[in-house]
Write a structure and sequence with these properties.
Largest sheet: 5 strands, mixed
Order of helices and strands: HEEHEHEHHHEEEEE
Strand content: 15-25%
Structural class: alpha/beta
Number of helices: 6
Distance between the termini: 23 Å
Helix content: 10-25%
Number of strands: 9
Radius of gyration: 17 Å
Shape: globular
Length: 178
């Protein structure tokens, strides 16, 4: 691995993993796919979604739909502000049903060792979604349109309910896999 990094002229001391949520205008709506780490990770140099939206002139209140691909912290962390309030107060938050069923199942959480990364991830999911009003949350099934021109596609493996998205515009299509 170290040799592969060196061959590409990359640092051997750290790996720079970049993740950017995707903002889509479709059907006259603003749709965000995933939200990034969220403001709790600003000290690590991530969690800049709110600042990036502001630089684009987009107020989080303008976003009407947030599609979540899976429940790892770098995809759901930005759903809440530093104060624990919904970051997208006017948005419908759409999450994969299978992902919801896995992460919010007490039996699955209790199988994870106390203090493990997996147990902590279960706790983070509960913290984040505990801040989202139930009326704002919709669980989606894959194979269906989840926003105008956007279809959710089942891609389990990374997580039990991981989803990708196919964005269509006329005859053109883009696969978004996060």
């Amino acid at each position: 691995f170290q040799e592969a990094l060196a061959l590409d002229g990359l640092s051997r001391d750290e790996i720079n993993s970049v993740f950017h949520p995707l903002l889509v205008r479709t059907g006259g709506r603003l749709v965000m796919i995933d939200t990034g780490n969220g403001p709790r990770s600003l000290s690590a140099g991530t969690g800049l979604t709110a600042q990036r939206l502001a630089a684009l002139g987009v107020d989080p209140k303008q976003i009407e739909t947030v599609l979540i691909s899976h429940f790892h912290g770098d995809h759901i962390g930005g759903l809440v502000t530093m104060e624990g309030a919904p970051a997208f107060p006017n948005a419908e938050i759409k999450v994969p049903l299978d992902e919801w069923n896995y992460w919010l199942d007490d039996a699955n959480m209790n199988k994870a060792a106390e203090g493990s990364n997996l147990r902590n991830a279960h706790g983070n999911v509960r913290r984040v979604f505990g801040a989202i009003p139930g009326k704002s949350l919709t669980k989606y099934e894959t194979g269906k349109e989840v926003a105008p021109g956007i279809v959710a596609m089942a891609t389990p493996g990374h997580t039990p309910g991981h989803s990708s998205f196919i964005i269509a515009s006329g005859p053109d299509k883009l696969l978004v896999q996060a």
